[in-house]
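User: Some background: our group keeps a shared notebook of sequences we're curious about, and every so often someone picks one and asks for a predicted structure to add to the entry. Today it's my turn. The entry only has the sequence so far, pasted here. Could you supply the structure so I can complete it?
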Amino acid sequence: MIVTQEKALLAAREEYRKMEEYVMQTGSEAGPIHAVEENLWKSALRMGLYLLQGFVAAQGDGDVGATFVLPEGRTVQRLEATHTRRYVSIFGELEIPRKVYGTREGQKLEVVPLDARLGLPESDFSYLLQDWSQTLCVQGSFAEASSTLGKILGPRQSVRCLEHMNQSMSEEVEGFWEEQPAPPKEEEGELLVVMADHKGIPMRRAAGDPRPKDPKHLQKGEKKNKKRMACVGASYTIQAFPRTVAEVMEEVLRQETHARRPKPQHKRVRAELTREKNGSEVKGKEVVFGWLRKEKEQRAAEGKKQVVFLSDAEPSLEELAREELGEFVSILDLMHVTPRLWEAGHCFHAEGSDAASAFVEKQLEKVLSGKTEYVIRGLRQSATKQGLRGNKAKTIAQVTQYCEKNEHRMHYDEYLAAGYPIGTGPVEGACRNVVKDRFEQTGMRWSLPGAQAMLQLRATYLNDDWDAYCDYRIDHETERLYPYREAILDASASSINKGINSDGAMMG
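Assistant: Of course. Here's the predicted structure to add to the notebook entry:
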């Protein structure tokens, strides 16, 4: 049914009249305010839908004549039938009748003037509804987002619909990231810190894959759920912050953050899975380190900033850093060292004992003082003297081998004196925020395209770029869908005979 502007505006006025009448009737009653609030909100949604219908009706049906000349010079003709399009707004659903242009019915519609004039999205769902929906989706499950938005706006979107929307919305993220400028120099710190880590994402079983084993039948080392590793990178700048060993030990052992600690500036995160792209495999960690290289080029140009690379002991990450980042200071994350010191301490003392705590504190002080070699030697000597066997001997061997392999990245005394960060709290937080907090909720399983889309959108959200990205995406999608939009606006201007009053108001 075609809704005229006059009919829509009359319905909006009637809805407003009912709202006034409702408030007047309930004003003398002792009803709870929340019930009044709920009823007014539902009425406001209905009124909003009527007003939106009135706005659309004022734009006409998009008829710009019997033919239309495309920008490349080709002429298309107006088709006889009026085509109706579904549009789902935050107020509700409406139907938009419009004239279309092409070769003939049944063929591709080449020009839809009203769609171009209104800047309609490619999907049925309004850009605002997509924004609101996916803001919820990047923070919690699709089911929770559906429930929350349904509670506020009325009809719920299905989980499948939200998943599809999520993938569609992520399609412009890479282009957006490529165009991001460096932060303002006056807001940057003197050190550029870059970091990387891996986190596993539980994946859905693909067609043809064997069914997962019953947990009761898993062998040692086997896991119930198949995971695919995502590489998460982070970068930020910060002022150098010289500290003493005692100050760092207070932070690590007592979990007391130093009051003078400077704040990271313009922290950015990015997360990627290894996947096929344009017919070839693209490795997630290579994409992340390519981005970190660009971060260095933008934010530490001409070698004016010291670059610090923080990571765990994974060799492939340091190798890629050497290939992509050039000169930098490589530091082993202290947060990967301390758990191993506790493992060693529990080989000599009971867990939870004061003796174990004192032992770890002593070893940590040596490590922070640049005496890792002494720690390695002391652990081996103590293990020999106490005659450790079995798992305890194996643990000491593993801890000492770990320290030996990474000793070149454990000059913490030098790092502290220079004011460098020695822990990857921000990247660990990034892994948790980007991956664990969203992807590892109970029962979640992901397809590869779905996981990559969510990684990109969630990183964009955590970078505080969500609104900028939504604007970028709308601009690029509009340009792609309606390359003829300017010509349509010129052609249709004279055909609009109804609509907004001469003073610009939609309602009198």
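Suggested note for the entry: The first strand starts at residue 67 and ends at 69. Residues 497-508 have pLDDT under 50 and may be disordered.
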